[in-house]
Structure formats: structure tokens, C-alpha cells
Design a protein that fits this description.
The chain contains 10 helices and 12 strands. The chain is an alpha/beta fold. The strands form 2 sheets. It has a 7-stranded parallel β-sheet. Strands 1-4-3-5-2 form a 5-stranded mixed β-sheet, with helices on both faces.
Length: 262
Amino acid sequence: MTITSNQNPRFRWVRSLIKQTKQRRQDASFVVEGVRLVEEALAAGWQPLLVLYSSQLSKRGQKSLRTISSAGCETIAISPTLMASLSDTETSQGIVAVFPITTFPLPADPTFLLIADALRDPGNLGTLLRTGLAAGVQGVLLTPGSTDAWSPKVLRAGMGAHFRLPIHVLGWDEIEQLAKSQTDPPLRLYLAKSRGGQPAWQADLRSPLALIVGNEAAGAGSEARRRADTALSIPMPGGSESLNAAIAAAILLFEVVRQRSQ
């Protein structure tokens, strides 16, 4: 059977998950597009609920499709035209997969967390997740107002980080309780700030900490500023006003890695 109508219930469900945050939250499901991300999900042990594929699928993608089919997951062929209408990229790779949203637990006593405070750009958030995973953070906390971590653009920029990293949406009261009550010693909250903070190279970042990265346009919100223990800045001798949020986070996260590896 090949789906050729855009009124097909399976097709319409996948399309709604791609386009609507509300639908993703309601069904606790999200859509992955492309061979590479499907491979990343399978390698991390995730099993899809549904896979749609077209004749455009490469031999490499067909290998993943056979693995999925042999595990008993539902796979349905659709026309190339319908697949193109689902694609969030210029050229479809011929496969989209629906997965259940899975939230990994945070460690009981975390020592290295990343907090995205109302980050709204999907590309920045995805890059932040990818960078956080590479740096070894034990979880990423998103404050209310952040873009949906399970949207197609965030998933694409995350390059598979979603399948290996605890991602939690928490309010500031919950974050403060986590930082101050559940660790020994407590997590110190460091706020990334473009100007006026302690130079990152001079701070001692070896103790348990959570790094707060603020909104791209407005910076950290009032709650983040109020609850932070210390503001950190990156020296910028070139005179730039600020750095991209994901780039700033990468520099600070790997400064933590550098200090802790000495």
C-alpha cells in the first residue's frame, strides 16, 4: 500500500506533529526527518511508532527501514509528492519517523548542567543541545518561554543530542530547588553575561555548577539574574557587543571541561 492522498489519517497525523507544538505535546510524540537522524535514534535504542518512506529513500536509508520493519514497527510507503510536502528541507531524503517523546531522568547529584533561559531561536537551541552533549553536561533545563525542543528545526540542529541527553522544562522555583537542595555541595548558578561579569578564565569552574544562557535578543530574564550566584563574561578584545548565544555557551562549557581535565 502507498499513501497518495493528503487526507490519509496517518499522513495528516504526521503533518500535524511536524507543524504544531500543541499536537506534539498532546500526543507526546515528535517527527524525525532524514536518514542520519533516524540512524542516530536507532543507535541510541529508540523505537519509532510510525515510519513514512518514499521511493527517494537511499540504500543507506533502506537498511534502517529494514531494521525498523524487523522490529515490528509500522512502516508505510507514501508518494514522493506527499513526502516533499512533509520535508522541512529543500530536498527530501525520503523518510520521516514518529517517535515518542522520552525524558531521561537527571542524575541524583548533578555536577554539570546547562540552563537555556527563554531561548527562542530553534537553531540556537539545537546547537546548544549538541554542544552540551559534546561537553558532557548531564542535562539541559529549559525555562518557560523557550522554543519547543522537539520541533523539526531544533532536532535537525541538535544532530542526535535529543536521543542521549536529559531535557527538562522547569520553572525557576524548581531549578533553584534542584540546585540548592539535591546536591552536596549545591550547584552554583553561573549566568553568561556579555559585559560586566567575572572573566571566565579567572573563575574556578571545577565545583558543581549550572551555566545559564539567556535569550538571544534580551539576554537573561529577571528571574535568572536574581537567582544566579555569579555572572561570567567572555573577554572580547575585538570590541564586539556580544556573541551568538550558542557560541558563547560553547566557549564557557568547554572552559569548564578544560579546567576539570587539569
